[in-house]
Write a structure and sequence with these properties.
heterodimer; A: alpha/beta; Rossmann fold; 5-stranded parallel β-sheet; 5 helices; 5 strands; globular; B: alpha/beta; 14% strand
């Protein structure tokens, strides 16, 4: 899977993974593939790319932005534009507001958790340090949101 | 300690059969130890705001998730959702709409009012149990709930 934005690639994306750390992103994508989640994943590396993706702007100009991801897995600390700003922007926009955004981060600071819910995060999961536990958690989180949760049509 | 102290799951559901099935499914998954059931949106708000019957409840213990039916007497799910999600003091409480309706209008309106999730209850018994078990596991075990 390439990290380079490519507006010409298939527009259908199940999971938009927003993560600046390459090894974390790699681990997440491997876990989803191995766990049989059967979802198409698009990885973007910061908040600017994430908003460009859902809005079909910037590097993703020309992408059919009516094709919204079914789930966004969002890191908090990222360069250029962080997870809080992405969340605020997505939830302030009527078109992107219904997309479930799950904050997935190594911080479980009370302030971060509360702030994320306040600005509209649908869920918040703390990444375990142990790689096996992290892989299993990622699969369970994706399965819950993709298989049981219902999105507006 | 009352049974409405330290509640992790608040179930807001007017139909006693649906409520009982939900509680049984959660119990089988060992997830119903700290569940409290209220029968409509008015009781739900009384619980959240520690008033009425719940005047003695500790407001510092916030529930990890509210499982919310839509069609209820007195105050329905959408009214409850709106009240909780427009109050800065309570808007961070995760609320999952859990209903037998999968009408587009209900789904869209629930998200517009700030629902954290929306699950349509399957009709088949096995699928219903699996769905409830997954909802309970996600919100109680995997998800980080906001502290008070």
């Amino acid at each position: 899977m390439s990290a380079a934005p490519d507006a010409s690639c298939a527009t259908h994306v199940d999971i938009l993974l927003v993560e600046d750390n390459h090894s974390d992103a790699d681990l997440t994508m491997r876990a989803l593939a191995r766990g049989g989640v059967g979802a198409s994943i698009r990885w973007v590396q910061d908040g600017v790319e994430a908003l460009d993706f859902v809005n079909g702007t910037g590097e993703f100009a020309g992408r059919d932005s009516s094709e919204l991801p079914k789930l966004v897995l969002l890191d908090l600390k990222m360069p250029r534009l962080d997870g809080f700003d992405v969340l605020r922007a997505m939830k302030a926009n009527e078109r992107t507001r219904p997309i479930p955004v799950i904050v997935m981060t190594s911080s479980n600071q009370r302030r971060d958790v509360a702030e994320c819910y306040r600005i509209g995060a649908n869920g918040y999961v703390t990444k375990p340090i142990d790689v096996a536990k992290l892989s299993s958690m990622i699969v369970r989180v994706a399965n819950y949101w993709l298989k049981f949760n219902q999105m507006p049509k | 300690m009352n049974d409405h102290d330290e509640v992790d799951i608040l179930l807001v559901e007017d139909d006693p059969i649906d409520a009982e099935m939900t509680i049984q499914a959660l119990r089988r998954a060992n997830l119903a130890n700290r569940l409290y059931w209220v029968r409509d949106g008015v009781e739900g708000l009384d619980f959240i705001y520690c008033r009425g019957t719940f005047a003695g409840r500790d407001p510092l213990h916030t529930t990890k998730v509210v499982l919310l039916d839509l069609k209820m007497p007195r105050l329905g799910g959408l009214g409850f959702l709106q009240a909780i999600k427009t109050d800065p003091g309570t808007q961070k409480i995760p609320i999952v709409v859990m209903t037998s309706s999968n009408q587009d209008r209900d789904i869209a309106e629930s998200y517009r009012l700030g629902a954290n999730g929306f699950v349509t209850k399957p009709v088949s018994f096995d699928e219903f149990n699996a769905a409830i078990r997954n909802i309970g596991t996600y919100w109680l075990v995997l998800n980080e709930a906001p502290a008070p």
